[in-house]
Amino acid sequence: MQQLSIRPGQKRNFRQRVTALFSICLFVILMLLFRTAYLQIIKGELYFSRSERNRIRLTPIVPHRGEVYDRDFKKKLIINRKSLCVTLDPVGIPKDKELKAQLFARLAALLSMTTQQVENRLKKRSWEGGFCPRVIKENVDYRTITRIAESLDLYPGVFWENRAIRIYTMTNTLSHLLGYTGYIDSREYRRLRRKGYRSGSLIGKTGIERIYDRILRGKEGIYEREVNARNQVTHQFERLLPVHGRPLVLTIDSRIQQIAQQTMGVKRGAVVVSKPATGEILALLSNPGYDANLFYNRIDMDALIRIQKDPAKPLFNRALQGCYPASSIFKLITSIAGLEEGRANLSMRYYCSGGHMLGNRFFKCWKNHASTFNMLDAIQHSCDVYFYRASLSIKPQNLFRYARMFGFGKKTGIDLPGESRGLVPTFSWFKKNKSRDWSDGDTFNFSIGQGDLLVTPIQVNLMTAAICNGGVAYRPYVKKEVRSLRYGRVVESNPGKRVVFTTPVSRRTFDLVRKAMVRVVARGTGFAASSPVIVVAGKTGTAETMVGEDHAWFTCFAPANAANPEDVIAVTVLVEHGGGGGAVAAPIAACIIRAHFENKTVNETMQRIWNMYGNKEEDE
Questions:
Q1: CA-closest candidate to residue 550, choices 331, 288, 269, 330
Q2: CA-to-CA distance for 539 and 468, rounded, in angstroms?
Q3: Is the pTM of this model over 0.85?
Q4: Is pLDDT above 80 for 516?
């Protein structure tokens, strides 16, 4: 048998090959170990978090917004009602276009929507930071939810949850004050994203819903949902419990608010009722109102379009934003300016023959009184001629100054959004906008509240309160207190009276003006606002307009002889294109005053006015 022999050279080659093979295997093993260590140790946390994100979904839990009450903490003005809603998580939607289209079509048919509506609700806007579950439809019934739960394979990414929806109980009466909520938009998101707001957050849009959103919205919780490879939820629990919004108590007296609405009826205008001693707003009405419930539910788009296009402008807050000529109400300021500047006194008397000639122009009075009046008489009968003639000695610059002194031309600071400043003109403003110099005729118009002077109902109410208080005006406010959610205890109160302005007007001047205001109601142009029990001090106004009938004004405070300032209320009424202030606006104030102090119904007060008004001729 022949023996195999390995030559030395062959043996060396074999060893080299074995060594090379071993080196390659060792290198591959080391590379695998290094890669494994890199993935497990260096990148382990990253990939673990990615896997957890695929397995666990964090979903916000929307808290219930705080409910809103009237001043007695009895009547709910805004309540929460539980509602099932269907949401769609963009992460769980199939990537395949055909499967996605089938899902949208299936979901739209189930929810009685169109496919386009579903896609629009899901569409990600450019300003949104990330994908959150989108609400597809609110107020879904249990039968629909059951159908989804029974066929989860057909609805990947679809979930349901219990959310509270807002119900506004006095929606048309308090719509401008309460406001409404809606989903956050791009501008709001950029401004509030660092304060816990996210895309899809519900936020107050107007009214106290907006101003006190921080109190009402609460804090969101977090759902932790564990899903399988088919995006089906296998386990769910509350990782962070939501903190619901706290109850908010307003200064609003719901009974006075309803009386104001009842007396205004279908008239366009505004009513403001306040307590001069504190600044509390007891009623704030802008008529017509609107149904705020439509804005939250997003279900009746035709109704929303009708509201936005309504020529009556129901979305416009006339109490805070409406700017109107002050008309004869401003005669109170003209009188104060004349008395304080020493340019007018009770001994000055002027004869009214129905107007006054200035150059070649005749300035009419609203009525030919055929009488000689002093200042008290002129306020009582609202004689234009007296103030025409007095204004020439008072001077327009003094009228401008006293108008601003009593809050015109600037915001009152009420805790509601959208307040207008109004307008108190100056010589420079007039020159710029009218392209001519100020004239004595302009002074005539300004002295009786016409011309370019524009005021809001809330400003007139504040001026009335200042006259009542002897020159001090407190900032109007509607937030009374915040209550605890569990026990209803007061946890935050309004900081109290905050002075808006004080005037250096003497006590004697205020006594004279208040005396004249009492005469206005007792036997003057505001006779319709009188009460057999309560002493009312007020002033009528009829603002001329370029188009249509005049605006009707009446402002007052009562009781004018109250021993306790806390008992006094100030009432301001404006009726757009209503006619005479004494005939139209004063009766509305009378209904409010007599309902508050005498517990009289609107019908009882109006019957009394009808019975006695036939003997009165003045209705300016």
A1: 269
A2: 13
A3: yes
A4: yes
